[in-house]
Here is the input.
Amino acid sequence: MPRYLFSIVAYSIGVFIIFLSTVPSVALKEIPDFEIDKAAHAFAYFCFAMSVFVALNLDWKLETARKWTIISGFSLGLLLEIFQGSLLSYRSFEVYDLLANTLGIVFFLFLSKRVKKLLSNAVFL
Here is the structure.
């Protein structure tokens, strides 16, 4: 297995979130449902948090992986919303997006102890 594979995956998911958060949302305007957009935010940040957590545990052997995952996930969401609201004319700061991002991180929190246990018992890693 390539070294730092999980870090590369986490970084890629983060870059993908940044890309989707900064491009004009022409294609996304065709989906008017508020719930679908917020569910997508929650899912994206759940995936980001989970991948960062796994990378910090397996690639970096960090004891405080859970804390740094929460900080990095919330910081990414907040910084992107501030960036959208202040520097992009075709995007805006949305509190509900920030709440949906946080909800994805909260879902991660509920599963993080189980994932940590699975990672510690994994033979293939």
Remarks:
- The mean pLDDT is 90.
- DSSP finds four helices and no strands in the chain.
